[in-house]
Amino acid sequence: MIAVLKPGTSVRQRDNLILWFKSQGLDVHISEGQTHTVLGIIGDTSRVDIDLLQSLDIVDSAKRVSETYKLANRKFHPQDTVVPVGPYKIGGGNFQIIAGPCSVESEEQIIEVAQAVKKSGAALLRGGAFKPRTSPYDFQGLRAAGIEYLLEAKKITGMPIVSEIMNAEHLPLFEDVDVIQVGARNMQNFELLKALGKTQKPVLLKRGLASTLKELLMSAEYIMAGGNENVILCERGIRTYEPSTRNTLDLSAVPLLREMTHLPIIVDPSHATGQARLVQPMAMAAAAAGADGLMIEVHNDPMHALCDGAQSLTPEQFDELARKVMRIREVVAG
Amino acid sequence: MIAVLKPGTSVRQRDNLILWFKSQGLDVHISEGQTHTVLGIIGDTSRVDIDLLQSLDIVDSAKRVSETYKLANRKFHPQDTVVPVGPYKIGGGNFQIIAGPCSVESEEQIIEVAQAVKKSGAALLRGGAFKPRTSPYDFQGLRAAGIEYLLEAKKITGMPIVSEIMNAEHLPLFEDVDVIQVGARNMQNFELLKALGKTQKPVLLKRGLASTLKELLMSAEYIMAGGNENVILCERGIRTYEPSTRNTLDLSAVPLLREMTHLPIIVDPSHATGQARLVQPMAMAAAAAGADGLMIEVHNDPMHALCDGAQSLTPEQFDELARKVMRIREVVAG
Amino acid sequence: MIAVLKPGTSVRQRDNLILWFKSQGLDVHISEGQTHTVLGIIGDTSRVDIDLLQSLDIVDSAKRVSETYKLANRKFHPQDTVVPVGPYKIGGGNFQIIAGPCSVESEEQIIEVAQAVKKSGAALLRGGAFKPRTSPYDFQGLRAAGIEYLLEAKKITGMPIVSEIMNAEHLPLFEDVDVIQVGARNMQNFELLKALGKTQKPVLLKRGLASTLKELLMSAEYIMAGGNENVILCERGIRTYEPSTRNTLDLSAVPLLREMTHLPIIVDPSHATGQARLVQPMAMAAAAAGADGLMIEVHNDPMHALCDGAQSLTPEQFDELARKVMRIREVVAG
Amino acid sequence: MIAVLKPGTSVRQRDNLILWFKSQGLDVHISEGQTHTVLGIIGDTSRVDIDLLQSLDIVDSAKRVSETYKLANRKFHPQDTVVPVGPYKIGGGNFQIIAGPCSVESEEQIIEVAQAVKKSGAALLRGGAFKPRTSPYDFQGLRAAGIEYLLEAKKITGMPIVSEIMNAEHLPLFEDVDVIQVGARNMQNFELLKALGKTQKPVLLKRGLASTLKELLMSAEYIMAGGNENVILCERGIRTYEPSTRNTLDLSAVPLLREMTHLPIIVDPSHATGQARLVQPMAMAAAAAGADGLMIEVHNDPMHALCDGAQSLTPEQFDELARKVMRIREVVAG
After folding, report:
1. Which of B124, C30, C232, D38 stands the most exposed, by the fewest C-beta atoms within 10 Å?
2. Straight-line distance from the first to the last Cα atom of chain A, in angstroms, rounded to the nearest whole number
3. pLDDT value of residue A91
4. Residue C201: pLDDT above 80?
């Protein structure tokens, strides 16, 4: 950790600060510049409150040298993490598409969609049973029944399933769900993350609406610190001032996260854009940017979807998307 | 609800869309403009998926005429809501200051701070027992013991207490807490909001880091829809591109929320700015903008605070703030 | 234009507002809903101040039905605009790469880079002579000499050249420049846009740091309204809260602008990300999203570049990028 | 300047980098930490490209120790700058209100508004003659005639006048204008800033829509570097994701700029909020936050204002605002 002192700091003030660091078991190097003194603080500085340090009268600025995420950090784990899900692998050069409806609406619906997307090349089936809706008056999902229908679709098609959890108390219902999704709104629901850290289930962790990449990794760290290293990161758009799309898909997150972490990174262009017409070009762009997979909303009857119909593709549109994406993927891998 | 059709929409396409609305029990007015046809959809449109509507090929744009929040809406409840907390009232022309440390650290600490802020005019005591921290390695709060120390301080000073909840399972521990706080990161933890809606406890609901005012009101609506109308809103800064402050305090939220809702609105300048030096000017500005109260972090030894020391005031600084704010308040009220 | 009146508006108030519209030569349709009255205002509403309308006591909200950009609007010009630049075409299914250094530094440098990027497939040569720098103490460009060196490189390689203008008074210096670039900071320098509208030079208009797509099109409209329809739009990243990249590249702008306008759309991944390592994945993603071209910074000696060296590729890196992008382009076109 | 090297950097790589610094006339201190080496670069580092440095393979991160703004920096000029305008002083404990219409529409209008606002306590008269409008089809101002009407109002009332410039070529028209305003869209029109730096006119510099406080100070530095130190800064709202106001007024900018610079800081709540109803509370808040003055839009007939009528106050509303603000001001100063 580095602390830059303001011009005019007296030697006594400087030495008091150094004493404060030393009282915390840290060592300090002093480097005198033309106008500023710079302190290099050496040792385990993870407990030093950098905001407090920056607020001191004599401190101009402070900066951490080491990242606060450790288990998710590629520096300490250079090898890609590969998360196994049923017969499939996510990460480490493998590319998988997760597809399915926003909400599970009935057993027939989820089976029909599952069969269609499997035929087009999707590996995993997604479907929401518990739905986080902005309004308490909107459809909140079929809940336990939705999970059952998903399991039925899994039995018939052999596809592993992905579904979102909103409450750690529901964990018993997710026993046979293959990947548990944490939605953007719950990315910093730390109690939920801790509970998932105690399981060994793969967790698909979506980036929060206004979260930095470092915060996303700190949330992954919550899960990993509990002992569960099967975390898949998902970029799904961030909130900006631009009103034309629901969110702004941040594809530079893909190569950046690739450097910062060893965890797999997938992209959800459906929620990011909120518009079916934009899903195919953004899916192709995500594959071109190097993503490890995609998460795509598909509905057999988008006009009557109970939630987020606007961003769902028909099975035919999904089929075209999957074919184009696979060709992009060849260019990237080649 | 209004739907604007694209130029070139055929009469058959238009009539199909109208049939779709009518099949949902809605009535439709047609208004032909120079280039566009406008449909006015009449009836209970709250179940119509506006995103889906906007994504149809023939629809140029769509717009809701009525807000989706009802219980929190001033249109239907013109009178200010007043939330009673012990001997104090929040809202309806009353102004209250909530003060205390970010985290409860010990019984002595919380009692000492409570006595100091009470003397300076604070009505309620705040203190965190369960702490949402970005890093799993940071101090997570004293938990149950922290609540006990707060209750001890309440017994000694008579101050009602405010503390943050992170998990509905902890509700039994909050039985004697006077106001339950929902933090910014949990503003859209809908499962937690629903659980709080079933209690009658006053809830202090903080605006999410990237939440619109409408979303804040929709989250209040979740609590109110459960039967608990004792909701206090709190502006605490939003995330922007500006790096000089932790967040950007959005004080125009105060007069805007005043128009949109009957619920009380308080401001937290400590978390918004993250810097002790900015707390007093922003507290004065919040009072001048018409807030119903303030939430201020005060610590008897900010240099050693276990969390967020950078934004804590000393009791002396708080005393000066309280005096200045009260004089501002007189100008506003007068 | 549509105006929604508040519940409780009296008939007299409503009729006064209707009179105000009629006094401006407009016609009004009235549609009564369950709680709100909706007025449809018919005629040329482009002069009605929508902000003023929305601020009236009796008006709940107002909405334009027609876009305010006309010449740039695909609704009125369904055919793609193709901008001819020397022997090349931009737009309408053609794909071109513009490459070169951020700043022209010497005649040797610009010729060397030009020859290298031409060999790798770049069609146009870019190079800054007048540089907009945040600090007055940073290198401001070679100015007139820079333009001359570019023209020399054009003579030798046959590549058309692109350079940025900062002041309409410099227009005479740009007589032999093939494409005049307007930088992000000048996107709303309306005096400059008007001056460019009076020429017939192709203009490469970069999106402002915090500009919406509609504002970008309104700025294109300034140029087109003057008589110059040769406008090329350029997405180059927008400002968000994320600190890991200089800007956030908004690739959904590509398919969105494709729907809104007939003008060509290119992408600049170098300025967007600010980091050489991210340029290739983002260039590939931009091509996959359907861009009409790319603008890439290339420097023969990035370590000594006088400006923006951090985001420049070496000629070797550019060669690899160009090959990969062309393969992506085949997938998109096919 | 500080550079943190990545773990695993070899001694040879480190020494090469140090040589590169030394070749630029700089000195380097080496400090070895547990995992990282930190270099302190000493000397005039203002020409070192920090982005380039950060992009090097062996560099983890880099940080400037000194600000790049010098003339505007309070560190080097601790005393408040006071800008004299006619008989008034701006800055240094003085508080002034600038009021008037968005656009000058006629001689009668501007004189009538001037007389009204003067009576209520405004010191300076504002009025737009050259108007930056997003659309080329909107009213662009009366231009030269507008300036003449302002000068007539100045003659009659004795009020110094403030008007916006959009083009350095118009400078001769501004010879008798007392304060030249640079609008938010031109904050980084560096050619215009340089031209204003060569005059001695007070310049009111508005913060750009998405500009950081440091960028605002760098733009002030452009003017000051030319020899003109009469710069007044103006906070007028920044662009965020919140749709309820036109912009988000960032009042923490006031105390922050107070620390960073010696220049006066005023606030424009009219353009920030875009809604007349919000102007008074935000004006009071700005005064409470410690601003040196306000800029308020006032119109004698807001319903017919040719531009920005929505945010204009009537003279009666302004009178109330001025009285309340003066009482807030007493609390702040006292």
Report:
1. C30
2. 41
3. 97
4. yes
Taking the C-alpha atoms of residue D216 and residue A158, their distance in angstroms, rounded to an integer, is 59
| Token pair recorded at residue C220 | 């294109």
Instruction: Give the number of other Cβ atoms within 10 Å of residue A140's Cβ.
Output: 18
Mean pLDDT, chain D, whole residue set: 93
The residue among C41, C37, C1 whose CA lies nearest residue C18 is C41
The interface predicted TM-score (ipTM) is 0.92
Phi, psi of B47 (to 5 degrees): -90, -5
Rg (Cα) of chain C, in Å, rounded? 23
- Asked if D217 and D260 count as a contact pair (C-beta separation under 8 A), the reply is yes
Please check whether residue C199 is in contact with residue C176, taking contact to mean a CB–CB distance below 8 angstroms.
Answer: no
CB atoms near residue A76 (< 10 Å): 13
Question: d(Cα B3, Cα D32) in Å, to the nearest integer?
Answer: 65
**In this structure, what token pair is assigned to residue C247?**
């800007």
Q: What is the DSSP string of C73-94?
A: BTTT--SPP-EEETTEEEBTTB
pLDDT tops 80 at residue B51: no
Residue with tokens 């808040």: D285
CA D72 to chain B, closest CA, distance in angstroms equals 17
CA distance C55 to C323: 55
Helix axes B315-333, D315-333, angle to 10 degrees: 150
> Going along chain D, which residue ranges are E strands?
2-5, 27-32, 37-42, 59-63, 83-85, 88-90, 96-100, 124-126, 161-165, 179-182, 203-206, 231-235, 265-267, 293-297
What are the tokens at C251?
Answer: 């690739």
Contacts of B51 in chain A (CB under 8 A): 246, 274, 308-311
**Residue D143 to residue D166: CA distance in whole angstroms:** 11
pLDDT at D310 over 90: no
Q: Which two tokens stand for residue D271?
A: 């353009």
Tokens of D171: 């400078």
User: Nearest C-alpha of chain D: how many angstroms from A159?
Assistant: 39
- Contact at CB, A288 and C290, closer than 8 angstroms: no
Phi/psi for D97 (5° steps) reads: -110, 130
Please count the CA atoms within 13 angstroms of the CA of A269 that sit on its side-chain side. 30
Question: Using CA atoms, how far apart are residues C115 and C130, in angstroms rounded to an integer?
Answer: 22
Six-digit token pair at D318? 């302004």
B264-298 pLDDT, tens per residue? 999 999 999 988 999 999 999 999 999 999 999 99
Radius of gyration over alpha carbons of chain B, in Å? 23
**What are the extents of the domains in chain D?**
2-63, 83-333
pLDDT band at residue D115 under the 50/70/90 scheme = very high
| Among the four given CATH numbers 3.30.70.1140, 3.30.565.10, 3.40.50.1820, 3.40.190.10, the one describing domain D2-63 | 3.30.70.1140
pLDDT digits (tens, 9 = 90+) for B305-326: 666 678 899 999 999 999 999 9
pLDDT digits (tens, 9 = 90+) for C170-190: 999 999 999 999 999 999 999
Angstrom CA distances, A239 to A212, A263, B202, B240, D308, stand at 11, 24, 30, 10, 28
Tokens (6 digits) for C165: 């203008």
- Specify the pTM: 0.92
- Answer whether B276's CB lies under 8 Å from B311's CB: yes
Q: Which of C31, C60, C243 sits opposite B31 (nearest CB)?
A: C31
Among the listed residues D41, D38, D42, the one whose alpha carbon sits nearest the alpha carbon of residue D61: D38
Q: What is the DSSP letter of B199?
A: S
D216 touches chain B (CB under 8 A): no
Domain over C83-333 is classified CATH 3.20.20.70: yes
Please report where in the chains the tokens 């790469």 appear, as a residue.
C97
Which H or E run contains B89?
strand B88-90
Q: How far apart are CA A184 and CA B188, in angstroms?
A: 10
Tracing tokens 């929508």 back to the chain, one arrives at C50
Alpha-carbon Rg for chain A in angstroms: 23
